[in-house]
Amino acid sequence: MHSPVSKIKERLTIEDVVSSYIKIEKVGPNFKAKCPFHNEKTPSFFISPERGTYYCFGCGAKGDVFSFVEEFEGLDFKGTLKLLAERAGIPLQSFNREEESEKDRLHKAMEEATLFFINNLKQEKEVLNYLNERGLQEKTIKDFRIGYAKADWTSLYLYLKSKKFTDYEIEKAGLAKKGDKGTYDRFRGRVMFPIMDSSGRVIAFSGRIFIDDEKSAKYLNSPETPIFTKSAVLYGLDKAKDSIRKNNFSILVEGQMDLLMCHQAGFRNTIATSGTALTDQEINAENVVSNLGLVRRLSENIVLAFDADKAGLNATHRAGKIALSLGMNVKAIEMEEGVDPADLILKNGVDAWKKSIRESKHLIEFFIDSVLKKSKDMRMVGLEIKKEVLPFVNSLPSAIEKAHFLKKIHDSTNIPLNALEEDLKKVHEELKNEKRELEEITLSQNKLFRKDYILNRILGIIFWQKTIKESSISLENTIKELERILDKKEKDIFENVENKKEDLIFEAETFYNTNLSLERDVGELLANLEEENLKEKLAKMMWSLQKAEEDKDVGKSNEILKECQIINNKIQDIKNSRKK
Q1: Quick one: how far is CA 149 from the chain centroid?
Q2: What is the mean predicted confidence (pLDDT) over 257-276?
Q3: How many other CB atoms are found less than 10 A from the CB of residue 170?
Q4: Phi and psi angles of residue 167, each rounded to the nearest 5 degrees, phi first
Q5: Which terminal residue of the chain, N or C, has fewer Cβ atoms less than 10 Å from its own Cβ?
């Protein structure tokens, strides 16, 4: 019997899957593209239909259809399997393990809660009328699975208990809290907006208070859980991603109603920050790709549409800074005071919103105008330009672009160009070390993601083979190799993955259950792991070399160069061994 992985690979070719995400072009028997996993101008990302694999000569990203979708979409293996199986038309029920992991149970609890809230909403005419008055159509409410949490302390908790979920699971999913008088529902008397991951699984909720009691927060969001990382998802991204790719830009709004009205009006490339959080890093310490990192992979172009108040301007500043740091092209819409996108569409119509998007300005121009509106005192304007605008100019990669925007500032404020250039140099010096640190973090995190992906695959095979009476590989030799490559003891290698053991076993079983050459594949995985580990060491050494050269420390530079050569030779030996 074929595994679901092999069936999916039979139906979906690597070139078809990759081309549904990025533009590819044929080069002989292969295809090439600009790598979606790092910024580059010249394509170095190659796809081999014969092998069913991809490789980037720029950043080293490599793998098959599963690793591509997993990394591009920011999903775990089960989410990737679900997404690709649906696309290939392959049912997965018969492949499920009898023993469910903790994450499986949490996903099921979230799905049951969603259905419970949807059913509640059907019975609440007052809440439905409110949503209709805000402009939402029945189809939109259904498509986004909007529901209602009754103003009751334990209705969801008791419902989930009836579905055989434990107190621990209900609390772990962020659906209930434990107090002095027992366990009670986290969400009460709120319109419920499910937040979903890229594959459409509900992973969190954002609840808006229905009747304001002047004590409760207007919005209450799920806490972080094993299946929900606030900085790894945006509300509506699961429904917006295809439109973002097609239109080659995204629209980032703040509230759920803003997003819902935009989607309803045909702007399905809209995503929202509500219930989530933005982060400066593309990949965090747990190898989770950030939400804007995922959006950048879909399109480098983004339009920000936040409110015109102080909080909205701060949000535009923060989102703009993060988007620019990820290499995105950023524009912003100038909203009227007290009017958000949902209001504009409802009161002025779709054409008014379309006009606002068309008239959006480059982020730097947006902030120039913002500074000029705040003050007419030219001394204060100059200080604000240095503080609010020049850091954005400094982040531009092109000297021509920098000169263009300095001229724009000069034309708008009459600040002398030479003064702007001097202040820009000062800003550059102030931000230089911070920029270098961010680049080093990003580089090491990208390497770490690939290394950990391979390591998890190996650990999954080891866990799986330990459950079998006659193992297909030498477990002792495999573990010894891991200890040598990572320079760690066995207990240190395994201690951080015990909580995801079942997920790793599931992935290994699904991938390798019908594999007749597991020993060979494990050997290749170990070689790949060693190569990635050496590349990570080399990257760190190169940063140290750059610093030593800047400090004009010749002795240290020569020392580091020798170490780099040794590491390079080891990497070359691994590559040569594959050719034999």
Answers
A1: 29
A2: 93
A3: 27
A4: -55, -40
A5: C
The per-residue pLDDT for range 200-211, each reduced to its tens digit, is: 999 999 999 998
Question: Distance of CA 495 to CAs 450, 452, 487, Å?
Answer: 20, 14, 15
d(CA 148, CA 11): 40
At residue 287, does pLDDT exceed 50? no
**Residue at 313: amino acid letter:** L
- Tell me the CATH number for domain 237-421: 3.40.1360.10
Which of 389, 231, 396, 412 has its CA nearest to residue 325?
396
pLDDT of residue 249: 95
287 φ/ψ sector (left φ>0, alpha ψ -120 to 50, else beta)? left
What distance in Å separates the CA atoms of residue 68 and residue 21, rounded to the nearest whole number?
A: 10
Determine contact, residues 457/503, Cβ cutoff 8 Å. Answer: no
pLDDT greater than 50 at residue 191: yes
Three-state SS across 292-304? HHHHHHHCCEEEE
- CATH, domain 102-228, list 3.90.980.10, 3.30.70.1140, 3.40.50.1110, 1.10.540.10: 3.90.980.10
Diameter of the chain by CA atoms?
81
User: Cα dist. 534→132, 148, 574 in Å?
Assistant: 59, 52, 10
Which residue shows structure tokens 């995400």?
21
Segment 545-559, tens digit of pLDDT? 877 887 788 888 888
DSSP 219-286: EEEPPPBTTB-GGG--BTHHHHHHHHHHHT-EEEESSHHHHHHHHHTT-TTEEE-TT----S-SB-TT
* Least confident piece of the model among 46-55, 381-390, 414-423, 430-439: 430-439
Q: What 8-state DSSP symbol labels residue 335?
A: P
The residue extents of the domains of the chain are 4-95, 102-228, 237-421, 450-579
pLDDT of 331 higher than 80: yes
pLDDT band at residue 361, thresholds of 50, 70 and 90? very high
What pLDDT does 438 receive?
47
- pLDDT tens-digit readout, 204-258: 999 999 988 778 888 999 999 999 988 888 999 999 999 999 999 999 999 999 9
- Please name the residue that has the structure tokens 């999916």: 8
Read off the tokens for 352. Answer: 């008014």
d(CA 38, CA 282): 10
Question: What is the CA angle 23-74-274, rounded to 5?
Answer: 105
Q: What is the average pLDDT across 431-450?
A: 53
Evaluate whether 177 touches 171 at the Cβ level (below 8 Å): yes
pLDDT at 277: 73
**What pLDDT, on the 0 to 100 scale, is given for residue 578?**
63
- Rounded to whole angstroms, the Cα distance separating 131 from 192 reads 12
Tokens describing residue 236: 């509506």
- Paired tokens of 477: 């030799």
Residue 321, classified by CB atoms within 10 Å of its CB into exposed (0-12), middle (13-18) or buried (19+), is middle
**Assigned fold of 4-95:** DNA Primase; Chain A (3.90.580)
* Count of CB atoms situated within 10 Å of the CB of 314: 11
Please say whether the beta carbons of 409 and 400 come within 8 A: no
